[in-house]
Design a protein that fits this description.
With 439 residues, the protein is α/β, with parallel strands linked by helices. It has 2 domains: 45-233 and 380-436, Medium-chain alcohol dehydrogenases, catalytic domain (Quinone Oxidoreductase, Chain A, domain 1), CATH 3.90.180.10; 236-375, NAD(P)-binding Rossmann-like Domain (Rossmann fold, 3-Layer(aba) Sandwich). The chain contains 16 helices and 18 strands. It has helices at residues 14-18, 26-36, 100-106, 135-140, 159-162, 170-177, 226-229, 235-246, 262-273, 286-295, 308-315, 331-340, 363-368, 381-394, 399-402, 412-420, and strands at 61-67, 75-80, 88-98, 116-117, 122-129, 146-149, 189-190, 197-200, 209-213, 217-219, 254-258, 278-283, 299-302, 321-326, 341-349, 372-375, 403-408, 427-431. The strands form 3 sheets. Strands 3, 5, 6, 9, 10, 17 and 18 form a 7-stranded mixed sheet that branches. It has a 6-stranded parallel sheet with strand order 13-12-11-14-15-16, sandwiched between helices. Helix 13 (363-368) links the parallel strand 15 and strand 16 (372-375). Helix 2 (26-36) crosses helix 14, helix 9 packs parallel to helix 10 (286-295) and helix 11 (308-315) packs parallel to helix 12 (331-340). It starts with 13 loop residues before the first helix and ends in an 8-residue tail after the last strand. This is Enoyl reductase (ER) domain-containing protein. Residues 74-430 form the Enoyl reductase (ER) domain. InterPro entries: ADH-like_C, ADH-like_N, ER, GroES-like_sf, NAD(P)-bd_dom_sf. Pfam families: ADH_N, ADH_zinc_N.
């Protein structure tokens, strides 16, 4: 498993890590490895027929968890087998993470078209490429390949994608988050008996098969398990994007993470991997704080019994942290993050809030003390996803420890309810493929 991999077996010498300079840190070392690395994800040739389909994949219907309207339970329905279009791949879904972003849609806090299949962090096996797929894509993620799908699915051609800022992809936000479909303006999901269109939240991962734009898919290392690796596509991907792209974190910096659920605990792990000197986890739940310690936090603060800002200042000798990450999407913790950073520090906001929620901050302090407030929504799939997978493969990210609960597709709605009640420590994952068992 990834957690037992040695640095030497991962191809990185311990001596070279010690020699990393502040601006030539683990991120650049791993990035160079990703460019040279080739995953052995090619399937046996006998498993593929002459048309490029995986043998045994041609079914007419699939099962999916459908949210017919907000504030109602999801229902398992039969849908027509989706088919990929140009620039897309069809995967047989193995696992899908349970995330608060889905919960915002389920509760009606974030307007979204319905009926919809939720689920936006997945692992699976490539079954089919869309028509006119280029040779490079077929080589990178061939039919039969083990893959991870990221929740931000870049088009690769819009203003921001061309600039390398795929986390701002205009096409994704217009057609998926705005219309519930893919980039021709339509969904790939239809009810099996009525033909009614079913919208997609990202790829609609709470289904036995799903269609994903190829730019959002990366090969999954053979040593990483399908189930636990599902969280790479959102929780870990979001944490990595926050620390690398938004905070531009450097080795030796101090970090506070406010809210240590799935994304927050992943931020703890990424901060540790980047060489954080002090990593302060803040939560009201002692179980979450204990879990954050296991993930690499050097200090914990229980917000229900301690003054968060005062305690962070005490830990940092009155200065405040270099970086504060808010992972809850609540107005009070938003303000706390801006108050917990040092002069010239960065407050990175990753927690989503219900539509219309606002927070007030001290403008004079921001201006005079150069405090930066930075929004961060995920990572950049083509740039970041392969690096995150490599970090997990090398054991720098403990994805197996981060996943604390598994459930079946039929139990998915109950899992979201448990998450809403604060009963899940770490991350829950839905086993879409029952054949995985304990794999």
């Amino acid at each position: 498993m990834a957690s037992t991999l040695s640095l030497r077996s991962a191809g990185l010498r311990l001596r070279s890590l010690r020699q990393l300079q502040p601006r030539t840190d683990l991120r650049s070392a791993v990035a160079s490895m990703v460019e040279k690395k080739e995953f052995s994800s090619q399937p046996e040739q006998s498993a593929i027929d002459g048309r490029g389909y995986l043998m045994g994949s041609e079914r007419s219907t699939i099962r999916a968890a459908v949210l017919w309207e907000p504030k109602k339970p999801m229902v398992i329905e039969d849908l027509k087998m989706p088919r990929p279009k140009t620039g897309e791949v069809l995967i047989k879904t193995k696992a899908c993470g349970v995330c608060h972003s889905d919960l915002h849609v389920m509760k009606g806090d974030q307007p979204y078209p319905s009926p919809v299949v939720l689920g936006h962090e997945v692992t699976g096996e490539v079954v089919e490429h869309g028509p006119h797929t280029d040779a490079a894509t077929q080589k990178r993620i061939p039919v039969g390949a083990r893959v991870v799908g990221a929740f931000i699915m870049p088009c690769g051609g819009c203003f921001f994608c061309v600039k390398g800022e795929e986390d701002l992809c205009e096409t994704f936000f217009k057609y998926n988050r705005g219309m519930g479909g893919l980039y021709d303006g339509t969904t790939r999901l239809y009810h099996a008996s009525t033909g009614r269109p079913i919208f997609m939240y990202s790829m609609g991962g709470l289904a036995e098969y799903c269609v994903i734009p190829a730019h959002a898919v990366a090969p999954l290392a053979p040593s990483l398990p399908y189930v636990e690796s599902a969280i790479i596509g959102c929780a870990v991907f979001t944490a990595y994007g926050a620390m690398k792209n938004a905070a531009d974190m450097r080795a030796g910096e101090t970090v506070a993470i406010i809210g240590t659920g799935g994304v927050g605990s992943s931020c703890v792990q990424v901060a540790r991997a980047f060489g954080g000197r002090q990593i302060i986890a803040v939560d009201v739940n002692e179980k979450q704080l204990a879990n954050a310690k296991k993930m690499g936090a050097t200090h914990t603060v229980n917000a229900s019994s301690e003054n968060v800002v005062d305690r962070i200042k005490e830990i940092t000798n009155g200065r405040g942290v270099d970086i504060a990450v808010e992972a809850l999407g609540k107005a009070p913790t938003f303000v706390q993050a801006t108050q917990a950073v040092r002069e010239g520090g960065k407050a990175v906001m990753v927690g989503l809030a219900p539509a219309g929620v606002a927070a007030q901050v001290d403008i004079s302090k921001l201006v005079r003390r150069k405090v930066q407030i930075i929004g961060s929504y995920g990572g950049r799939a083509r740039q970041d996803l392969p690096t995150v997978i490599t970090l997990a493969e090398m054991g720098f990210l403990k994805i197996e420890s981060a996943v604390t609960q598994r459930c079946s597709l039929e139990e998915a709605d109950a899992a979201y309810g448990a998450m809403d009640r604060g009963e899940i420590t770490g991350r829950a994952v839905v086993d879409i493929d029952p054949s995985l068992g304990n794999a």
